[in-house]
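Progress against Task 2.4 (sequence-to-structure conversion) is shown through the following example record, which the project officer requested during the mid-term review.
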Amino acid sequence: MTLPILLFQGGTHGNFLSRCLSVASELEEDFDFYAERQGAHNNATFKKVVIHVHPQNLKDFYHNHSDYKDNNEFFAYINFEVSDLYILYWHVLYAAGDFGVDILNVQDFDNLEKAINHNASHPVFRNSLISQVNIFKNDGISGLREMFKKSLNQTNGLLTLQSLQSEIYSKYSIENIFEFSWFYDQEIFCKQIEKLLIKLGYEYKIDISQHQQEFIDRKLDILQSKKLVELAFNCYTTNTSMDISNFCIYEQAYLDYLIEQHLGYEIENWQEYPTNTQDINPVEAWEGVRYEL
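Structure tokens generated for the chain above:
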């Protein structure tokens, strides 16, 4: 029997959603989602309500599952917005891509390259990261900040996730959209799980709120980081003093990104980053764009 397909891009939590559907339906007994390993692919053997597949793996999936016959209609897709990318990229590098890189702690290209070069899994993803690093690394810290900032742009990015999403909507028929932001609101998440189960012919029998809470608890650092940078942006726009001397490179990049969206143009990269929001005096980048990805 073929299962409905949940289509999701790397880092958009499809593995977690699939586990929640199986447990909430009581098809699978409740289990520790993180017992085997700490990443997104832990405990992969469980009774599935849906089969979850990455878009880039569909060709191989069809080849190995002839009963699907190049199906172009999918039960659900996890949609994300540009505003989700700050958390999404952190998750891709830290858990979903199995690189184990917490980009909140990356201060130069050395430790980023070590993690990339020591990870042989996901070769397409790995090659994409290497090519991006090679573009920016000669500029040192400024280049790292610029690379992270570009990753938050809807038209660029380390993995061009936004363009892949547009392609998905143009090529495939999607029955249900599950928003990336729903994973971060327990009430909405549980209600949307129940709605999907009803459409699948199941009932919401087991409360999975504790799994959603553990999911959030494991992401507190990046969630708090996002709020902190957005507070700094508000201070910048209101000319209010806020100490940002402890911002990591990724947080600096996000603040620059927000400033660019506010001003409507690309700003010149900082050689030495300001230490207070009142010291931020951005200058429009020469010739508009410095890096083309």
